[in-house]
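**User:**
Everyone, produce one record:

**Assistant:**
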Amino acid sequence: MIIGVVKELKEQENRVAITPAGVDALTACGHKVLIEQGAGLGSGFTDESYKAAGAEILNNASDVWKNSEMIVKVKEPHESEYEYLRPDLVYFAYLHLAADINLTKVLMESGVTAIAYETVQRNDKSLPLLTPMSEVAGRMAIQEGAIYLEKTRGGKGILLEGVPGVTPASVVIVGAGTVGTGAIRRAMGLGARVTVLDINVDRLRYLEDIFMGRIETLYSNRYNLSKALKHADLVVGAVLIPGAKTPKLITEEMVKKMQPGSVIVDVAIDQGGCVETIERPTTHANPVFVKHGVIHYAVSNIPGAVPRTSTLALTNATLPYILEMAKKGWKQAVLDDEALAKGVNVMNGKITNKAVAEAHNLPYYPLEEVMKN
């Protein structure tokens, strides 16, 4: 198979879809890898390192797109790349279609086969391709939130861990999945007081055990959430319903009751966000805005701020799937792997992911039916 990797065009997105080690694994199996010139520089990977691993470096992104059977990327296609989408192409990347009706329709109209990292799901409900970036984003949410608590950034002027004789900051984490756990780990490591809310009591029990009772756990409902937010210094939105649009659990009324200078980091913004006062994603160039006196951080590609770590972690997770699709062809790989099959969001102009179809009130077609045609 011919696999193409192009430079990411999202603002300040320095990750790249594959490392030289990943290229080496593919070329060792007889596959061809085309890399756009300079695609890996933001993550610290030179063209020479890719060449040494067996890749062919092309000067123009258009040549990579046109000559590849499968494009592997980090993020969704940029508007300038829509023209390259075609029926005989497989596009493998993070897509987050439930929050983007326009991109969903573009993919349908192009006929491309779009496989989303974030909906590849094993039988145990784990999300192997979302997990590494969720781990990064959870940790980064605390790191970025701590910065914006500084008075010079408009925050309360609070040091997250406090000092002897001074109370540490109160961190509230909404959602106890991978993002939430990463945020707990970082917040506790910095000495903050941590409260986590979730509707899965078994998950809360597990977290209380592994963190040895050093966190406060609350069942997530309107009453408990509203009460926790009133006294929170830093709030992390870590809610996820795989493939679906995120519910707005943190309402505008709740935000209004928060203390001025508090910070909200909505990691769920890729899937539409869980905070009602955040209408659209922000960027690394302009990461925050203030509403009702509360600082809102809603960057949709948080791991892009640490591209070296993120690219290495992402390739570790995606490479086995890329190798299987290259070896067997994507159709056979999907037939053989139920987890990968759940990643197929759009094929032959039809939505094959139920959560995406429901998010946009569009027809849903089971993948097995579409593949028969």
User: Anything to note?
Assistant: The chain has a mean pLDDT of 97.
